Amino acid sequence: MEKEKVDYIFNHHSHLMTFKEKVAWKHWSTDYKIENGDYESSEQRERRRRLSYKTGWLTDDKEMLALLDDGIEVFKRRIAERIYKEEKVEFNNCPQCGKLTRTPKAKQCRYCGHDWH
Ligand SMILES: [Zn+2]
Q1: Domain that holds residue 46
Q2: CA of 7 to the centre of ligand 1 (A)
Q3: What is the 84 CA–ligand 1 centroid distance (Å)?
Q4: How does DSSP classify residue 108?
Q5: How do residues 11-30 score in pLDDT, each as one tens digit?
Q6: What backbone torsions phi and psi does residue 4 show, to the nearest 5 degrees?
Q7: How many domains does the chain have?
Q8: Three-state SS for 100?
Q9: How far is the CA of 98 from the centre of ligand 1 (A)?
């Protein structure tokens, strides 16, 4: 599945993720934010990390973490493909050029500029 479609499903149909997928995704985003966040000291960063485990934003569940083993792009693509297959997601394609729009409700094409309001 192309990255564009993966992002579309991830951005607009993420409620269709399973519980485990959601926990893994939450873990990855939280970890990313902590890693890239501005902290005055490494102690502060560690404190934030410990707190995140307590509040459930980070997980130590091996099964859920294993979903992230192949990297975030693979993780996202697998989930998008599963959701597409199991939930029969419909893509909102431009009626003129057939390309994928930005959102499920978009009525204007970002490629050819066609407007079907
Ligand atoms: Zn178009």
Answers
A1: 3-87
A2: 18
A3: 22
A4: B
A5: 999 999 999 999 999 999 99
A6: -60, -45
A7: 1
A8: strand
A9: 6
